[in-house]
């Protein structure tokens, strides 16, 4: 089943954007893990739309209903099931199926023989990142108790770039604080410029793409496997479950293709009783296995395909050419709410690798 992921930790996400509810089943969590729901709510709130013009106006409270797997605040070891009701549904906005450019309307129509729920993107919608963030919030608490910290920031919006992580020296405190922000950036001046750019394209009935840079601290050397079950493939596999993701790179990524080996290689050193590298161009992963250095990766998000500009499409009824201007409530930049989603996906991937 395409909506189930994982080996040791199995994740099943269900529901549609404008259906009755969405949710997640997490199987394989260790028993006896105390869950702090205030911390869970923090990350759900970071993903949730706000009142600014930077986000969609759809307002879901995302109140979680726990169905199973939790007793007196501790995991029981049996499947944990969480459900989120959909309340702010616009039942008039999707009376007929229209193949919106950049969306999965056409491919979903073909794959499911015309029976897929197309309202608001249905099962393809970014609304489904809510249960993913919930699952990630649970997993990152389990990881934190094992000394593993995850955080991210918006490194670029269009051609406006934030400062990158210092891939060798990142403190736990810095990353923890960053992962609590609603528009996380390192250079606060860039935050203003990014927000102005987003509002600019929105006023022009358009959208813009962005990149999230994520860092993971506390992963000891030796985690992961070569070939098919390596850290890169594990993280990448679940990252691409996030709607709008079009690319991922680790360490120097594509920049390494323009470098010499003498520039890209990280020399080893021995510091404070541990083998480390002087630089971290490899992004904390060698041969699919953790090196003990911070794991660094970047995720590219395409511009939100729902835009107000007139676009051409084809009618699913008679294949005739049509013009559409997409109405409704949409984010002008997906990445504004994507940081906690990327962090959560990484947390689930690492929990699957580490917690057995």
What features would you describe in this structure?
- It is a single chain.
- With 356 residues, the chain is an alpha+beta fold.
- It has a single domain, classed as Chorismate synthase, AroC fold.
- Helix content is 24%, strand content 23%.
- It is built from eight helices and 18 strands.
- The protein has helices at 37-47, 105-111, 129-144, 172-178, 188-203, 231-239, 261-264, 339-354, and strands at residues 4-5, 10-15, 21-27, 64-68, 70-71, 74-75, 80-85, 149-157, 160-161, 210-217, 245-250, 268-271, 274-277, 285-286, 289-290, 295-301, 311-314, 321-324.
- It has a five-stranded antiparallel beta sheet, with helices on one face. Strands 9-8-10-16-11 form a five-stranded antiparallel beta sheet. Strands 5-6 form a two-stranded antiparallel ribbon.
- Strand 1 (4-5) and strand 2 (10-15) form a beta hairpin.
- Helix 1 packs across helix 3, helix 3 packs across helix 8 and helix 6 packs across helix 8.
CATH fold annotation: Chorismate synthase, AroC fold
Beta fraction: 15-25%
Overall number of strands = 18
Helix-strand category: alpha+beta
Mean pLDDT: 91
Q: What is the distance, rounded to the nearest whole angstrom, between the alpha carbons of the first and last residues? A: 23 Å
- Quickly count the domains: 1
Low-pLDDT stretches:
none
Which strands sit side by side, in order, in the main sheet? Answer: 1-2-3-7-4
Summarize the main sheet. Answer: 5 strands, antiparallel
Count helical runs: 8
Q: From the 3D coordinates, which CATH architecture would you assign? A: 4-Layer Sandwich
Could you state the order of secondary-structure elements as H and E? EEEHEEEEHHEEHHEHEHEEEEEEEH
- Could you tell me the radius of gyration in angstroms? 21 Å
The CATH superfamily is identified as Chorismate synthase AroC
* Name of the CATH first level: Alpha Beta
């Amino acid at each position: 089943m395409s909506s189930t992921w994982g080996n040791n930790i199995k994740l099943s996400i269900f529901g549609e954007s404008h259906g009755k509810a969405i949710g997640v089943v997490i199987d394989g969590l260790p028993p006896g893990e105390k869950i702090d729901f205030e911390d869970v709510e923090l990350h759900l709130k970071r993903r949730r739309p706000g009142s600014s013009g930077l986000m969609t106006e759809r307002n879901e409270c995302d109140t979680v209903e726990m169905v199973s797997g939790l007793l007196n605040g501790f995991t029981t070891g049996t499947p944990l099931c969480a459900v989120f009701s959909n309340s702010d549904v616009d039942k008039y906005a999707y009376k007929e199926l229209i193949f919106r450019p950049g969306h999965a309307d056409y491919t979903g129509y073909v794959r499911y023989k015309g029976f897929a729920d197309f309202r608001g993107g249905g099962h393809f919608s970014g609304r489904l990142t809510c249960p993913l963030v919930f699952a990630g919030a649970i997993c990152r608490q389990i990881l934190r108790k094992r000394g593993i910290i995850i955080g991210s920031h918006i490194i670029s919006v269009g051609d406006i770039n934030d400062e990158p992580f210092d891939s060798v020296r990142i403190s736990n405190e810095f990353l923890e604080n960053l992962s609590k922000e609603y528009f996380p950036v390192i250079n606060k001046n860039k935050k203003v410029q990014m927000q102005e750019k987003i509002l600019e394209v929105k006023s022009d009935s358009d959208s813009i793409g962005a990149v999230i840079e994520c860092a993971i601290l506390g992963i000891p050397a030796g985690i992961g496997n070569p070939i098919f079950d390596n850290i890169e493939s594990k993280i990448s596999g679940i990252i691409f479950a996030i709607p709008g993701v079009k690319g991922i790179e680790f360490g120097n990524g594509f920049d390494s293709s323009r470098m010499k080996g003498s520039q890209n290689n990280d020399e080893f050193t021995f510091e404070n009783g541990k083998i480390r590298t002087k630089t971290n161009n490899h992004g904390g992963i060698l041969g699919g296995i953790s090196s003990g250095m911070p794991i660094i990766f970047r995720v590219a998000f395409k511009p939100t395909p729902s835009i107000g500009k007139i676009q051409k499409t084809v009618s699913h009824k008679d294949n005739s050419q049509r013009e559409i201007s997409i109405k409704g409530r949409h984010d002008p930049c997906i990445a504004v709410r994507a940081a906690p989603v990327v962090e959560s996906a990484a947390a689930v991937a690492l929990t699957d690798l580490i917690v057995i």
